[in-house]
Amino acid sequence: MSDERENLTYELFGTAMRDMARAIADDGYEPDIILSIARGGLFVAGGLGYALDVKNLHVMNVEFYTGVGTTLDMPVMLPPVPNVVDLSKKKVLVADDVADTGKTLKLVHDFCAEHTAEVRSAVIYEKPQSLVKCEYVWKHTDRWINFPWSVEPPVVHREDQVRDA
């Protein structure tokens, strides 16, 4: 991986959402539900939800990255896991910020595939090594990405709060 980074600004994020929404609409795909992978996918789901006029947004929490370039062995779904009845026979668009290894997207895609009419994925960035090739991608890159919502350190450090309690 290069030392150079992709720098996504909020302005470029807006452009990415409109571009991806246009690609999805032009493709004729009309999702019933947008399923965001928290946390980065929350921004994408919200942006696409407004642009595609989809109000039915769901969230799936998946833990995989533990730091810059460090991960768990496998992604893990965290509660609450979406009820499969809510997804039954629906067209689902899975939204995330990046398909890096693709392991998180694969976990969510496989979870949805058994219960939905159709599942497709939309990401801002897709990396060459991703196990999942998303139907909708704003940009392909092999660089580390600075997202506007995560480039600054947290204002509050939760570990400090737990230790001090």
Automatic annotation (TrEMBL):
Domain Phosphoribosyltransferase residue range list: 14-152
GO molecular function annotations of the record: glycosyltransferase activity
Top-rank taxon, per record: Bacteria
Keywords assigned: Glycosyltransferase, Transferase
Organism from which the protein derives: Nocardiopsis metallicus
Pfam families named in the record: Pribosyltran
Protein name from the UniProt record: Phosphoribosyltransferase domain-containing protein
CDD domains for this protein: PRTases_typeI
Alphabetized InterPro entries for the sequence: PRTase-like (IPR029057), PRTase_dom (IPR000836)
Gene3D superfamilies, A to Z: 3.40.50.2020
